[in-house]
Design brief:
The protein has 785 residues and is α/β, with parallel strands linked by helices. 50% of the residues lie in helices and 12% in strands. It contains 30 helices and 19 strands.
């Protein structure tokens, strides 16, 4: 039975010496959410800035006091987020720093294993935590509370899904708390998260809820519309002509008959490409399928160019055209070459170059300058039609702003323009991936945030990396350089202002373009999300029954596995290379009750199942690529030098479909592998079959054959054993099945040769007739016929 709480969210004993406590006074809605989340796996939906992390801190203190010998785990998608969690625990609870551990890929697995043993709170990226579960370096039995931040990611194959399943099955006292600003805008998406994270209740709030209103300041959203110049429209029209020609070509070869050019989304184009690739993979595709894929690739590039001319700046479009030219020159893409040779595409490019030479920019850039001058310096009264003067703040220090933009090229141009305005100190804030001469490390990201907090910068120009989770200091206003069609991203962007003082959100929108569609798409998705959540809460009994049914199944499955493990006589061991740690095959093997999986650093192969069998695992794409670059032959040579029976396991259906290599080359490589190197090749369709195949090999080698186990191979020993087995099996009436029992009983061939008929009969399977044959073979005088 749960203990009674005091007002601060601690147990009544929580303020006694040795108990954990929080060091802040919770807001009313935080107290209510905390109280309702103690006894159920809960999805907590709160807009950015309302203190989701504080609720998790309250639950952490409560659970640690309730289960003193257990641990708390809090998962977040990035290292900066993990570091923020640590700061939150240190600032807001009395948990000591040496009891809090951070797990990321930068920390060695052995070090994480040590930290696990002595920590009360573990803050980890999901990939690192998943690897530690697979490597059995940690025990989920020890965890009494698991937090999933940015829980909208818990879909598909994301690590959260598998971790939650393992935790729910293995923990002694499981409790899950999932945190997000938006779980999705469709019933299917939200239900997927609910099911994947074993959610039993939803707690949500919006800025309009009565118990929230008193804690927040008004955030005013101002839509600032601009008109696309005639020259930009002309360039866009050429791009539309270019696209329509390709749609006509698609229809001519039997594809895209239901396509409406004016409502063609990137999502739909990707779906079509995926459908065609599947047809090719399944061997059902028409000869024109490859042409269709190329045309779709061209259409997507045109669509991107149209989006840039409508919503971004000439600089962004010029940079994009330049990258296409570079790809064409390097011969990287037939689709690009075809596109650049199109007269309409050339015309669009020519118009953009002319506009660039005239130093023209998208009208959004001019409007952005107006907004910033108005906000920072009270200049440029043109914006009075958008802003009520009474909203202006007086007597406050220097303002700060965040400008969100979809594209790095736009961020670069915005910084260039704003840097010329006296008093503005802009900085670009993007992700780690190096693109177009941009990209900053997580360390650099942290430094930028700190400098922004100290007013060394007063404008942060951010791509999507600044939307999710990061502890960016409060700002006076936010500018969307373009609307985003995602409810999640809109909520996250908007939540960066209005936390402690009234804030503003400016949304720059180009009339009669996709900007308007994106604006309304996000609006309706957000409203739909709120409506669905409320409906789910009202109808929760139905969902809870479904969930409980699933839990009962899982519980029974867990018990069945436990019984099976107890009753099993032997388990086979499999050593997997730790670099295969993200593989779904590993997850299947981990859940197999007959297998003891260990992760190690293997010099050769991906899996080792005995002293003579190592497996090199490849997807069909990797296998083809390894033939092209010659890697597979070198791998086969090294495997054969160290293992008696190396195997290459190829996963994927129809290996020849969808690949750019001639079948004769594939068959030639396979012949060389099997005959030239003596490497066996096996095929599976999916990761489940691959795991079953590897497990079967391990059981055959270790349990049935009772073979030794050496992950690094024992080639020389295996060669001698195989030769001995071969010689004895050549005795008339003795097959390979009897050769091994004979060798095991007598140890050497010499002892077999010197054995009497009676002694030979001591071996199981050897009767008087066979014993006499063996004796005569070694003792009868040779006579030449």
């Amino acid at each position: 039975m749960d203990e009674e709480l005091d007002r601060d969210g601690n147990t009544k004993e929580g303020n006694e010496e040795g108990k954990y406590v929080i060091k802040f006074r919770p807001r009313l809605y935080q107290e209510r959410i905390f109280y309702n989340s103690r006894n159920k796996n809960t999805l907590i939906v709160l807009p950015t800035g309302l203190g989701k992390t504080n609720i998790f801190l309250m639950l952490s203190v409560y659970r640690l006091n309730l289960y003193p010998g257990k641990k708390i785990v809090f998962l977040g998608p990035t290292k900066p987020l993990i570091e923020q969690y640590k700061k939150a625990f240190l600032d807001n609870t009395n948990i000591e720093e040496d009891a809090i551990a951070i797990f990321t890929g930068e920390i060695a697995p052995e070090k994480r294993e040590e930290e696990w043993k002595k920590s009360k709170v573990v803050l980890s990226t999901p990939q690192s935590f998943e690897n530690d579960i697979l490597g059995r370096r940690i025990s989920l039995k020890d965890v009494c509370l698991m937090g999933f931040d940015e829980a909208h990611r818990a879909a598909g194959n994301y690590s959260y899904v598998w971790i939650a399943k393992q935790y729910q099955e293995e923990a002694d006292f499981p409790r899950i708390v999932a945190l997000t600003a938006s779980p999705g805008s469709t019933l299917e998406k939200i239900k997927e998260i609910v099911q994947n994270l074993f959610i039993e209740a939803i707690e949500s709030r919006s800025y309009d809820d009565e118990d929230v209103k008193s804690y927040i300041k008004e955030t005013k959203t101002i839509f600032v519309e601009v008109k696309l110049p005639e020259e930009f429209i002309a360039a866009r029209d050429y791009l539309y002509k270019c696209m329509k020609k390709r749609i006509i070509s698609l229809k001519a070869i039997g594809y895209a008959n239901d396509i409406n050019p004016s409502a063609l989304s990137k999502t739909r184009l990707l779906e079509m490409q995926s459908e065609i690739r599947k047809e090719i993979s399944d061997g059902r595709a028409e000869p024109e399928a490859y042409r269709a894929i190329s045309l779709l690739a061209e259409i997507m590039k045109i669509q991107h160019a149209i989006e840039l001319v409508e919503t971004q700046d000439i600089y962004s479009l010029e940079e994009y055209f330049g990258r296409l030219q570079e790809q064409a020159q390097k011969g990287q893409s037939k689709a690009v070459k075809s596109l650049l040779s199109d007269p309409d595409f050339k015309s669009a490019n020519y118009l953009i170059v002319l506009e660039s030479e005239k130093k023209r920019s998208h009208p959004k850039m001019d409007k952005l300058r107006e907004i910033l001058k108005k906000e920072f310096f009270d200049e440029n009264k043109k914006l009075d039609s958008y802003i009520n003067k009474n909203d202006e703040k007086e007597g406050q220090g220097e303002k700060k702003a965040i400008i969100f933009t979809q594209y790095r090229d736009s961020a670069v141009k915005i910084k260039e323009v704003l840097s010329k305005i006296n008093g503005l100190r802009p900085v670009i804030f993007v992700g780690q991936t190096k693109k177009a001469n941009t990209g900053i490390s997580q360390k650099e990201q942290k430094e930028i945030i700190e400098k922004f907090s100290r007013n060394e910068y007063n404008i942060l120009i951010s791509t999507s990396v600044g939307e999710e989770g990061l502890d960016i200091p409060k700002v006076d206003f936010v500018v969307f350089y373009e609307p985003v069609p995602s409810a999640i991203r809109q909520i996250q962007r908007r939540g960066r202002t209005g936390r402690s003082d009234a804030g503003k959100v400016y949304v720059l929108t180009t009339k009669n373009t996709r900007d308007e569609g994106y604006r309304w798409s996000a609006f309706h998705k957000e409203k739909r999300m709120q409506r669905i959540i409320e409906e789910l809460k009202k109808e929760w009994n139905f969902l809870k029954k479904q969930h409980d049914s699933g839990n009962n199944t899982n519980h029974n499955y867990k018990e069945a596995n436990y019984i099976e493990k107890k009753d099993a006589n032997e388990k086979a061991s499999i050593i997997a290379d730790f670099r295969e740690k993200g593989s779904f095959v590993l997850k299947q093997l981990y859940n197999n009750p007959d297998i003891d999986l260990r992760l190690e650093s293997l010099k050769l192969g991906d899996f080792v199942v005995s002293d003579r069998v190592a497996i090199e695992f490849k997807t069909k794409e990797d296998f083809i690529n390894s033939i092209i670059d010659g890697r597979v032959l070198e791998q086969a040579k090294e495997l054969k030098e160290n293992y008696m029976k190396p195997i290459i396991l190829i996963q994927g259906e129809n290996i020849f479909n969808g690949n750019r290599i001639d079948k004769r080359a594939v068959f030639g490589a396979m012949s060389a592998l099997m005959i030239g190197f003596g490497v066996q090749i096996a095929f599976t369709s999916n990761y489940e079959e691959s795991a079953l195949f590897i497990a079967s090999l391990a059981k055959r080698e270790q349990i049935e054959r009772k073979g030794g186990f050496n992950p690094h191979g024992s080639r020389k020993k295996s060669l001698l054993s195989e030769a001995q087995r071969y010689l004895v099996s050549a005795i008339p009436g003795i097959n390979s099945g009897l050769a091994e029992p004979l060798l095991k009983h007598f140890s050497t061939i010499k002892n077999i040769a010197e054995a009497s008929v009676a002694e030979l009969q001591d071996v199981e399977g050897i009767g008087k007739k066979k014993a006499t044959q063996i004796y005569e073979l070694f003792n009868a005088r040779f006579e030449l016929n």
